[in-house]
Structure formats: C-alpha cells, structure tokens
Amino acid sequence: MVQTIIKKSQAPLDSRDLEVCQHVFDDLRTMADVPRNSEEAEGIAAIVVELYRQGVRNREQLKTMVQAARGLFEKQPTQAGVTIGESTRSIGPISEESEHEKGNR
C-alpha cells in the first residue's frame, strides 16, 4: 500500500520511535555490510529518521524506501548471456519485444 505523506511530524522522537529507527538502521547496515561509523551509515541513519518523521512507521516499508533511496538494491543484469563451455557471451539487452515485432505493429 502506498502512503501519502501530508506533512512532517515536528514532535520529538520517543524511545519507541528510536527503537524502530535503530532496528531498521542496524538491519540495513548489516545487509549492506556498511561500517557503523562511516559516511554511508550516517546517510542511512538520516534517511531512516527523515522517513520516520514523515510518517513511514512500518519497518519493512522503511527498509524498502531507504534501500531505494540509497541504491542498495542489487543491480539487475541489463544484458542476457549465453554460457558456452567456460565463457559467457553477451547477446545484447533484454527486451520484451524484438525489433521485428515492433515493425509489425
């Protein structure tokens, strides 16, 4: 479900809020193998807190949104490959329809 964010909450975070943010931060940092005292970790923490303040309270939603914001999703392959013996040969970009099919429209 998509959440609409109307306005930021200006209320201070309480211990329960901080517990949720800390849990999400720790999970993301561990998954991404980011050192705790790094710039990357600071960026992750800032985004977690900002999204939480904007009303995203679900831990899984927070993780997904922070991953998207920080580009932590694994890169998807952009080309298909064919394995022949020990080597893989690129066969070009993956598309849903071929050039031939596009021309027949």
Task: Please give the structural blueprint.
Layout: H1 15-32, H2 39-53, H3 59-70, E1 79-84, E2 87-93, H4 99-103
What is the subunit arrangement here? single chain
**What is the rounded distance between the termini?**
36 Å
Beta-strand share of residues: 5-15%
Largest sheet: 2 strands, antiparallel
Structure, described:
The protein is of the alpha+beta class. The chain has a domain at 15-70. 48% of the residues lie in helices and 12% in strands. The protein has four helices and two strands, in the order αααββα. Strands 1-2 form a two-stranded antiparallel ribbon. 9% of the residues are buried. Residues 78-90 have a biased composition (Polar residues). Residues 78-105 are annotated as: Disordered.
Please sum up the structure shown.
The protein has a domain of 56 residues. Helices cover 48% and strands 12% of the residues.
What labels would you give this structure?
105 residues, alpha+beta, two-stranded antiparallel ribbon
